[in-house]
Design a protein that fits this description.
The chain has no helices and no strands. The chain is mostly loops. The termini are far apart. GO terms for molecular function: structural constituent of ribosome.
């Protein structure tokens, strides 16, 4: 076995999902983001400190 002959095991690498490219793709329309809410909007980031409107544990 040489380093030059190594290749990934079968099934370990899958092609990436093309999100939001039409309803026929299965990932169209909402593109896996649901309907409403913060995460469905564009330009969102992970707000790790946000507690859903509850008074924050640390201020």
């Amino acid at each position: 076995m040489d380093l030059g002959t190594l290749k990934p095991t079968k099934g370990s690498i899958s092609s990436s999902k093309r999100i939001g490219r039409g309803n026929g793709s299965g990932q169209g329309r909402t593109a896996g983001k649901g309907h409403k809410g913060y995460q469905s909007r564009s330009g969102t980031k992970n707000r790790f400190h946000f507690e859903g409107g509850q008074t924050p544990l640390m201020r």
